[in-house]
Every structure is written in structure tokens, then in C-alpha cells.
Amino acid sequence: MTEEKVKVLIIGSGPAGYTAAIYASRAGLNPVLYTGGEPGGQLTTTNDVENYPGYPEGVNGPQMMVDFQKQAERFNTDVRYGMATKVDFSGYPHKVWIDDGKHLITADAVIIATGATAKYLGLESEKTYANKGVSACAVCDGFFYKGMDVAVVGAGDTAAEEATYLANICPKVHLFVRRDEMRASKIMQKRVLNTKNIEVHWNTETEEVTGDATGVTGVRVVNNKTGEKKEIYIKGFFVAIGHKPNTDIFKGFLDMDETGYLKVIPGTSKTNIEGVFATGDAADRVYRQAVTAAGTGCMGALDAERFLTAKEEELEEAKG
């Protein structure tokens, strides 16, 4: 095992990690960034990004992340391919092990940008038609299905929000609910049931997403009470059954909610551990957008810079 001491360690790439790197490197903090198992994060699985400012013609998701990385490296961010697999935040400086203990890094400040992973149903056809009609974000991709019939799977607030959002731009929205009731808040349920072009299919499970070379063309569902099957014509299939934040390695050290999203002091990126900052989707269960992730990445770097400056001033005072 090799060991290394760094001033700022950024765990994870994507908009939050790379933005944190840009700000930290410009502040002279010499950040080291480990990309994680999916360099670039969730955006690398998105073909077209049309809602991020600065790209008037839209941009391919993977290319956007290449642009972010190049900008971070322009200011001398040390971008490395590898994954943080263990941490110890019980003392100071903080310890982070990379790639199952092959490398140990001690860092004065740690910026977490590990993101979250969308949950899917586990159907092979979801993979087949990923970015060809299958999506886990209506706000991100709904525009591409404007004027087309679509379907949403889920029963919570996220599913209700996605269905009502799509109902504004699509003539018909099918909402598949596995039970005979929704888990969404009463106000969201009321909104769904009062929207004329949303049809709720109760006790309904998806058997298969169907399509051709052009992408999704329909979905086959089954009523889990009666066994009745039906084929429904759609062009967009949105899975809204939740996200899992990639925060398991921080359990026991950082405060998180019941789902695993990291808790921060409101209005900051500060966690309950001094010198550890949480950014992006790992700490955001509400918005989960590239632009909001980038914003919190900026916050993480600025908070880290101020923390380190205060630490240096303390040391100077102690010497004096």
C-alpha cells in the first residue's frame, strides 16, 4: 500500500466534482480528484443535454463531462481514475483508501461528489432502450417526447411529480402503480387524479418495454390482481422508483437520512465532520440536476478554502 498527503481530495466526478475541482484549483489548493467507477457520473449515460446553460445547441452528455474534465485539468487539477472504497473521518487529517486499500490518502479537506444512482425495474429491455425512450428523469428528458404518449412507473412523490410535469407537454401519460394506492403525499395524489390526461393503472406491473430500431414503441403490462395483460403504445418510458445515493462508505461517520443522502448544514456544504463537505446528488434528494450539482460543487470548494484558511490562521496563532 502506498501513502500520500494532499490538501484537498475530491471523491467523485460529474458536474459537482469537476466544478469543485475548478474552484479549488484556481484557489491554489492543488486538488486531487478520483473519478469513481463511472467517470463523469450519470450524465455519461445521457445522450442529449439541452437544459444546461452555455450550450445553446445542446450537448452530448459524455462530451459535456469531457469538457468539464478538461477545464478542471487546465487549472492543474490532478484527475485520477480510481474509486474510494474506505474512509476514516474519526481523526484529522482525514483518511481515504483508494481501490480496496491499494493507496491511502490523508487529506486536510475532503469534498464528496459521489452522486446517486437511479433505480430501475431490472428488465433487460430497459438496458436495450436506455436513451432510446427509457429514462429515469422526466425533467431532463421529457422535452424530447413533447407531443407523444408516455408512461411513468412509480407510486411516490417523484412519480407523481414526473407524471404531472409530463402531462403539460404530452397528450397522454400512463402512470403504472403496483398497488391499489399511491405512496405519494395527499396533495400530489390529488394533483395526479385531477389531471385529465393522466391515466392511473392500479395493481399494474411492467413486463416488458417494447420497441424497434427507432427506440421505444410500447410497453406490455400485467394486472397483478386479475392477470390481465395489455400492450400500450408509448414513445417514452420513465422510471420513477427512486435513487440510491452512493454514500455507503461514509456510514458511521457522516450524518445521513433514512435513504442515505448526506445531511449538510443548510445553506452550506458542511457535514457533521469538520473539513468534510458534501456536494451534488449525494446530498440532494430534491433537484438532482446537473446545474444544481455544479452549484453545490462550487459551494464545496469555497467552504473547503475557507476552512483551510481558518486552519492555517489557527496554526499561525499557535506558533505566535
UniProtKB/TrEMBL annotation:
It comes from the Bacteria. Residues 7-297 form the FAD/NAD(P)-binding domain. GO terms for molecular function: thioredoxin-disulfide reductase (NADPH) activity. Coiled coil: none annotated. Its EC number is 1.8.1.9. Transmembrane segments: none annotated. It catalyses: [thioredoxin]-dithiol + NADP(+) = [thioredoxin]-disulfide + NADPH + H(+). Its cofactor is FAD. InterPro entries: FAD/NAD-bd_sf, FAD/NAD-binding_dom, Ferredoxin-NADP_redctase_2, Thioredox_Rdtase. Keywords: FAD, Flavoprotein, Oxidoreductase, Redox-active center. Gene3D superfamilies: FAD/NAD(P)-binding domain (3.50.50.60). Belongs to the class-II pyridine nucleotide-disulfide oxidoreductase family. NCBIfam families: TRX_reduct (TIGR01292). Homodimer. This is Thioredoxin reductase. The lineage of its organism: Bacteria, Pseudomonadati, Bacteroidota, Cytophagia, Cytophagales.
